[in-house]
Amino acid sequence: MTSPIQFGIDRLLAHPDLRRPLAGRRLALLAHPASVTADLTHSLDALAACPDLKLSAAFGPQHGIKGDKQDNMVESPDFIDPQHGIPIFSLYGEVRRPTDAMMDSFDVMLVDLQDLGCRIYTFITTLRYVLEAAAKHGKSVWVLDRPNPAGRPVEGLTLRDGWESFVGAGPIPMRHGLTLGELGQWFIDQLQLDVDYRVIEMQGWQPDVAPGYGWPLGERTWINPSPNAPNLWMARAYAGTVMLEGTTLSEGRGTTRPLEIFGAPDIDAQAIIADMQALAPHWLKGCKLREIWFEPTFHKHAGQLNHGVQIHCEGPYYDHAAFQPWRVQALAFKAIRRRYPDYPLWRDFGYEYEFDRLAIDLINGSPLLREWVDDPAAQPADLDAQAQPDEAAWQEARRRFLLYR
Questions:
Q1: What are the φ/ψ torsions at residue 384 (nearest 5 degrees)?
Q2: Which residues neighbour 45 within 8 Å (Cβ) at sequence distance 6 or greater?
Q3: Which is nearest to 101 in space by CA: 152, 59, 44?
Q4: Is the pTM of this model over 0.85?
Q5: Which residues contact 207 (CB under 8 A, 6 or more apart)?
């Protein structure tokens, strides 16, 4: 019988000895809506209720500390928290990096963010920026660790030099298999930062155990860390479906299953599934593809009937070790390009404040994925030949940063 899981925030609240080094120091909290305790109290309220802790500020990442901003590039303002009377600074508003004035508001930054285990999820870039600012200003950073809901598997191309962006914090593969606390250690090593850093580790996290394989199903309630992250299945698929943001295909925003589905008004989804199964059936293990129809209420193709595909990575169809979401989505692009050679697949627009490079390339950290899709002669084995060395190198590089074995 395993003991119940405890997240970092719950251990900090439960153990006065863990809090003792914080006595007399001004604390800031970096949080979002999923920053909750086991009883679903928001971490800001729970920490404010601790008589031995002094909160002086809080910070919100993309989508805001309340998670109220629906889409990308929708900024959040700074404000004064009406309940606690402290400033709430936005790290997705006028600035992405904390300013000198923001850094002057605290001595220790507590980071309590639920991540999705994918390089482009901007909370990890915000963690990097916070660590860099803390090193500059002599501040401490404590990560109150949480599960990586996608578990330990690694997949995808590593971001290439020169492709860093707000959706590309460093040379990391698309699916990195680390917790936020572990990633912080990697950033400090990678960037050679001199910063006082501590991880309040989880207790009882078992990323290789069914049925959650990263998320403690049945023990903890799923709270959306961002508006379009509604469940564990989305988190599993996200390392692939996030690429849809760089395409003209709908990723299901404006439906109840965002980033689990894809489609468009002008594709034959049934034919696309058949082509995927014929082209690389070994890339489709561990999940089930189902033909669907949907009509988004907002975002791409709003109000139009879309023919699409749902990626089922739950229940009897899910095999955690076999599922490769990045390859599944890449294969869908390849099937569309083969069936419709002139399809306007790549969306040319400003993406996360980058206007001179295609979004699909920013998302993948290089043009390699797009070039593979667009090359009529390129086969699945060719993408494997590029990605597999990256994946193996990351497996080895991350080994010394693993806190949970």
A1: -55, -40
A2: 83, 84
A3: 59
A4: yes
A5: 147, 148, 151, 152, 213, 214, 404
Exposure string over 35-59, b if 16+ CB within 10 A, otherwise e: bbbbeeebbbebbbeeeebbbbbbb
> Degrees (nearest 5) of the Cα angle 371, 171, 167?
75
Tokens of 310: 């749902």
Taking every pair of C-alpha atoms in the chain, what is the biggest distance, in angstroms?
A: 66
The H-or-E segment that residue 60 falls in is strand 54-60
R_g of the chain computed on alpha carbons: 21
Instruction: Measure the CA–CA gap between 201 and 98, rounded to whole angstroms.
Output: 25
Q: At what angle do helices 232-241 and 325-339 cross, to 10 degrees?
A: 50
Q: Residue 240 and residue 156: Cα distance in Å, rounded?
A: 9
Which amino acid makes up residue 74? V
Report whether 139 contacts 108 (CB < 8 A): yes
Residues 6 or more apart whose Cβ sits within 8 Å of residue 147: 5, 7, 179, 202, 205, 207, 214, 215, 216
pLDDT, one tens digit per residue, over 189-205 is 999 999 999 999 999 99
C-beta separation of 156 from 343 below 8 A: no
Query: Token match 């169809």: residue?
Result: 317
Q: Cα separation of 403 and 202, whole Å?
A: 9
Q: Where are the beta strands (DSSP E) in 176-317?
A: 196-200, 261-264, 288-294, 306-312
Structural tokens at position 45: 């309220």
Q: What is the pLDDT of residues 215-258, one digit of tens each?
A: 999 999 999 999 999 999 999 999 999 999 999 999 999 999 99
